[in-house]
Amino acid sequence: SPQIVWLRRDLRLADQPALHAASQAGPVIPVFVLDDDRAGDHAYGGASRVWLHHSLESLGNSFGGRRSQIVLRKGDAPQILAALADEFGAGAIHANRHYEPWWKKAEEELADALPEDCTLVLHDGNYLMPPGSVTTGSGDPYKIYSPFAKSMLDCLPPRDELPEPDIIHSPETWPGSDDLDEWSLLPTKPDWAGGIRNFWKFGEQAAHKRLDWWADEVGDYDEGRNLPSQDTTSRLSPHLHWGEITPVQVYHRLKDKRSSGWQTFLKEIIWRDYAQNVICQFPDYARDSYRDYDERTLWRNPNSGHLIQEELECWQKGMTGYPVVDAGMRQLWQTGWMHNRVRMICASFLVKHLLIDWRHGEQWYWDCLVDADYGNNGVNWQWISGTGVDSNMFSRIMAPLSQSEKFDAAGYIREYVPELADVDDDCIHDPPDDRRGDYPAKIIGHKEARERALQAYRDSKNG
Ligand code: FAD
Q1: Domain boundaries, given as residue ranges, for the chain
Q2: pTM (2 decimals)?
Q3: CATH of domain 1-125
Q4: Can you list the alpha helix ranges (DSSP code H) found in 66-127?
Q5: Tell me, what's the pLDDT at 302?
Q6: Which of ligand 1's atoms lies nearest the C-alpha of 361?
Q7: How far apart are CA 368 and CA 48, in angstroms?
Q8: Which residue puts its alpha carbon closest to atom 14 of ligand 1?
């Protein structure tokens, strides 16, 4: 009987456990459902929709090359899949597990809605180890990254990677499919996605090409990873997020490298697994805080004052007067991605310098990042804010000007803040007033902001 493969963030043919199992059991009907309502405030953001369009287009071509196709449908995923299973007499629906709370709920609803002779078969495929499987000696999940990573390193290597299916049989008749272009995932007027298209190549093949390139570069990751002016990180994050490539494939491709760069890189990939481990324990992690601060005292709320709203907009548009922050926020807007070091600096700036609730930043990144990931984004925002279950503290405040100098962001600033293109290296991190031209003055002084943040922190603890 036909086997439905429910595609979500697993847009690939190789190392695809759900597709692999389905292809061995019968004719395959791959289905992607655009279920826009289910995720609420975490429905796909603007940049994610652009990536999704191109990735589906690319995967559709790959299936086409295998004389297969993707069936595109829009609406409530469990209902649509259950109806398709019924209509086409599917023996099983195969899917790779996803751990966002709305997807876990959808998996439960689907299992309940299926016709009696159809089963839901869930596979593990998008992480180094199945989330929840790395535990303490007493079987509890880890809350803190370092012991989690140590334990995971002891559990590695991960499973073997799976090849592309030898044969993907088609069903006798195909269900009708929507036309991808009619989903309007791409912006039209204005078309703000040009920068994203220039910066990226989408899809499974592009992901592997980037990994091939990265295999020659990873040895320098220790030094390179903090330098935003250079292309010295893998830039695999959107490919990993959308499941165009798996961390298991990355691991097996790089494992013989033995360099310290590879060891450091592996720990970053483990952060990704850690974030899933956190959202499995705390499904509302991208919304709730887990410390005993009085958040009403701590944050300046943009909804309560015109000025604070304007400050939030200056941050979003890259007009804070701090060159490295503005370069980062403009890189984000133009390319859908931001260098990790700068993601940290910009996030810390919003939360500590402007004292604006991290949730506003989380939502902005969510909308603008092509790799916007419920686990990674929530965990990193909480880490920067010191509001999560991990070990970081609010009182750790990053100094954007010295970070910019230390990590040599001059080239990066010139690229993304053209107003400062002619300013010399020695003053570009904090240009004097007469060298700023049209570029704005600092929205708040660093020392003043730091003192205000620490005071607010103390008040929120006492309150
Ligand atoms: P590399 O340095 O090459 O790292 C390799 C891979 O490891 C990345 O592709 C990513 O999958 C994973 N990784 C690296 N750092 C982290 C990390 N700190 N946490 C989790 N995984 C990590 N990453 C996302 O994928 N999606 C997000 O929505 C996201 N939001 C973030 C928000 C904030 C405030 C911060 C500080 C970081 C966020 N990150 C997020 C983590 C990190 O910035 C990106 O994964 C990284 O910059 C992607 O670039 P890269 O692929 O070149 O990374």
Answers
A1: 1-125, 127-161+202-283, 295-462
A2: 0.98
A3: 3.40.50.620
A4: 77-88, 101-113
A5: 80
A6: 34
A7: 8
A8: 268
| Among candidate residues 219, 222, 203, the one with its CA nearest the CA of residue 254 | 219
Testing ligand 1's pocket by substitution, the residue of 341, 371, 382 carrying the most ligand atoms inside 8 A of its CB is 371
Here the tokens at position 14 are 């190789």
Whether ipTM tops 0.85, in short, is: yes
Pocket test for ligand 1, best of 380, 381, 384, 385 (most atoms within 8 A of CB): 380
Annotation-wise, does 265 bind a ligand? Answer: yes
Contacts of 424 (CB under 8 A, 6+ apart): none
Q: CATH topology for 127-161+202-283?
A: 1.25.40
Q: Is 173 left (phi over 0), alpha (psi -120 to 50) or beta?
A: beta
Question: So what's the pLDDT on residue 181?
Answer: 97
Q: How far apart are CA 179 and CA 73, in angstroms?
A: 9
- 133 in a labelled binding site: no
48 marked ligand binding residue? no
Q: Is 258 annotated as a binding residue?
A: no
Pocket test for ligand 1, best of 332, 376, 385, 387 (most atoms within 8 A of CB): 376
Q: Which CATH architecture has domain 295-462?
A: Orthogonal Bundle (1.10)
Structure tokens at 50: 């652009």
